[in-house]
Automatic annotation (TrEMBL):
Pfam families: VCA0040-like (PF04018). This is DUF368 domain-containing protein. PANTHER family: INTEGRAL MEMBRANE PROTEIN, POLYPRENYL-PHOSPHATE TRANSPORTER. The chain crosses the membrane at residues 12-31, 51-70, 82-101, 113-138, 145-170, 190-209, 221-239, 245-263. It comes from Clostridium tanneri. InterPro entries: VCA0040-like (IPR007163). It comes from the Bacteria. Keywords: Membrane, Transmembrane, Transmembrane helix.
Length: 268
């Protein structure tokens, strides 16, 4: 039963990763698997059989989640931008009470609140309008491969660090639309160098982040909360009108309740 639950948690993390402004790392914290994920990756060779089984469950769920929902999300964002973005905002806000509970459950002091402002500031800076560089990623040749490798390493930091949305990072790099399209069309030439970069970035980042969570948990959680709050601005589509007011409000509430309920069950 636990293996099946881990599989579905992997799907949920993958779907969160596909959503701009929603962090797969935050989702893994809410679902109670973040610490085990970090430990399994950083200590893989100490007990590779045990860690491989767990990572395989999450990875399989994640792969299926991406394949099942990438086309759906791409289509829904195109057809119902207001409704989808208000759902994303509900999900983001629903995670905040849970992250705050995490932050007060560890030793911290009032100075840690400064890191909330740092996280907020960095997130807002990242929301600046990106330059159009998708053409470089779509081009052929070694220059495109090197660019995608570097982009993958940058995206890996967002995958590992809770509060930073990997899809938001893709938006910042100008790669969100082309990445969704590449997943849906199985564009291997694009996905392989990007994936290799993500693997390299993950292996290089995970141990450092694990140490930060162990040594400075209060500061780290405050930083994460700042990132999450800052991610709301680029997701907000404006004030809806007409029937969209009712639909947007409904999905906002549903998104908030869903993520809060999932996280509360795990915490309890």
């Amino acid at each position: 039963m636990k293996k099946l639950i881990n599989f579905f948690k992997g799907m949920a993390i993958a779907v969160a990763t596909l959503v701009p402004g929603v962090s797969g790392g935050t989702m893994s914290i809410v679902l109670g698997v973040y610490d085990e994920l970090i430990n399994s990756i950083s200590s893989f060779f100490k007990d590779w059989k045990k860690h491989f089984v767990f990572l395989a469950q999450i990875a399989l769920g994640g792969a299926i989640g991406i394949l099942l929902f990438s086309r759906l999300i791409e289509s829904a964002l195109s057809k119902y931008p207001f409704v989808m973005r208000f759902f994303f905002i509900g999900v983001i806000l629903g995670s905040l009470p849970l992250l705050y509970k995490k932050s007060i459950s560890v030793k911290r002091n009032n100075k840690d609140l400064m890191f909330l402002l740092v996280g907020l500031g960095v997130s807002l800076l990242m929301s600046a309008e990106p330059e159009g560089i998708a053409a470089l990623a779509a081009a052929e040749g070694m220059k495109s491969i090197i660019f995608l490798l570097i982009a993958g390493i940058i995206i890996a930091v967002a995958l590992i660090l809770p509060g930073i949305s990997a899809s938001f990072m893709l938006l910042t790099l100008g790669l969100y639309d082309i990445t969704l399209s590449s997943i849906n069309t199985f564009n291997i030439r694009f996905l392989i160098p990007l994936g290799i970069g993500i693997v390299i970035g993950t292996l290089a980042t995970v141990r450092t982040l694990e140490k930060l969570m162990q040594r400075y948990p209060g500061k780290t959680y405050m930083l994460i909360i700042g990132f999450v709050v800052g991610s709301l601005m680029p997701v907000f589509p404006g004030i809806p009108h007409g029937i969209h007011i009712i639909l947007s409000t409904t999905v906002f509430v549903l998104g908030f309740i869903l993520i809060y309920w999932l996280g509360k069950k795990e915490i309890n």
